[in-house]
Amino acid sequence: MKPKVFALLVLIFLLVAAIVGFQRLNLSEDLASDEFYFGVSFGGQTPEEARGLIDKVKNYTNFFLINSYDLATNETALNEVCEYATQAGLKFTVYFEFISRVTYPWHQTWLDSAQTRWNNSFLGVYLHDEPGGKQIDDQKTFSAAANYSEAANLFVGNTAQSNSMIDAKTKSVQTFTSDYVLYWWDYLSGYDVVFVELGWQLNSTQQIALCRGAATMQNKIWGAILVWSQYEPPYMASAQELYQDMLLAYGAGAKYVSVFNYPTYPKDNPYGVLSEEHFRAMENFWRYVRANPRPKGGVVQANTALVLPSDYGWGMRRNEHLPVDNIWGLWPEDEKVPIILENINKLLTQYGTDFDIVFDDIRFNLNDKYNRVYEWDQFIP
To answer: pTM (2 decimals)?
Structure first.
């Protein structure tokens, strides 16, 4: 081989190697920056039960949601579970129905020390549960309002000004919750992370569009939690259905994907309501995540948005079991509903997960978030 030809081949080889190396470096940076958390919730009562579940899932999860009122009111037991989760290499959040100032005064000092004691393993507090859903279905936050705008202000104000939210913000503790409606106002109320509930035989893509849209517009974080499919045993959807929702949420950019795990069913199941098939689906999903890292640090943003009217707190749940829903838990569906519903269905068909649902709000600029924007009453072919 002539020296010039050989030199040229060497140069080409080095150039290809450099390009491959650069691509691998970028991939490594993407993997490092995509802080994706996948895990399971614990709804049992004792540290022994929690340790068993941690041992079961620690090889294919990195997140543990301590979703137990019994542990949240027992400092010694809670510390034991937090320590065990940390030693297993899991990040965790802790459920508090409320951050007590009187009944459980240790809540205050516990939160002061948790971030130091467990460092970045402690992600924050899962505060309350389904605040939007409890307003829509049970009028938990307020029971009367003159109009939609007053309802929105009451919901946001009452939640944001609760002692628990104030204490969490004062201590710079990240706040989590999950919900199935009113995500927009959950974020406005002060929540840093909202998990969209996938289940209840609702349209998962539509639910993601609502939650991700709210998070995108307000520069917050969203995740997904896979919940019951029905109120009767076996409660959860099949392993294959759970797996598909995991893939859907991950592909749509969820920072968190968690599997709800309550109650114990059957009674001799040591791990809660999840079966061996469910755990295998979780393990398969973890393999998929490791083999298919998301680009750009996990950021997945829709290009299309449908803008709903300001303060329009419609539950928006429609299926064979719930043919109609209400607005703010106070008013029946109004004349806008058929138009909005038709346009949502059209956009879901056209764009799938490349579609968000947002609300008209002068505090947030749509133009720098989406390429295609449709108004709620616009004709969509």
So the answer is: 0.91
SS (H, E, C) 254-321: CCEEEECCCCCCCCCCCCCCCCHHHHHHHHHHHHHHHHCCCCHHHCCCCCEEEEECCCCCECCCCCCC
CA 66 to each of CA 70, 78, 120, 310: distance values in angstroms, whole numbers, following the listed order: 10, 9, 16, 35
pLDDT number for residue 318: 81
pLDDT at 1: 52
Cβ atoms of 85 and 54 closer than 8 Å: yes
Low-confidence spans in the chain with pLDDT less than 70: 1-33
Determine the Cα–Cα distance for residues 286 and 242; give it in Å rounded to an integer.
13
What span, in angstroms and rounded, lies between the C-alpha atoms of 200 and 81? 30
Whole-angstrom CA distances from 257 to 40, 249, 316 are 8, 7, 23
- Residue 345: left (phi > 0), alpha (psi -120 to 50), or beta? alpha
The pLDDT of residue 296: 81
User: What does DSSP assign to residue 105?
Assistant: T
180, 200 Cβ separation under 8 angstroms: yes
- Residues 237/229, Cβ–Cβ less than 8 Å: yes
Query: Does residue 152 contact residue 185 with C-beta atoms inside 8 Å?
Result: yes
pLDDT given at position 359: 98
pLDDT in the model for residue 51: 98
Contact call for residues 327 and 315 (beta carbons, < 8 A):
yes
Question: What own/partner pairs with CB < 8 Å and gap ≥ 24 does 322-328 have?
Answer: 325/136, 326/136, 327/148, 328/135, 328/136, 328/145, 328/148, 328/151, 328/152, 328/155
CB 183 within 8 A of CB 275: no
Per the DSSP assignment, residues forming a β-bridge with 197 are 225
Give the end-to-end CA distance of the chain in Å, rounded to a whole number: 65
Within 13 A of 328's CA, how many CA atoms are on the CB side?
Answer: 24
What the chain holds in terms of domains, given with CATH numbers, is 32-298 (3.20.20.80), 304-375 (no CATH)
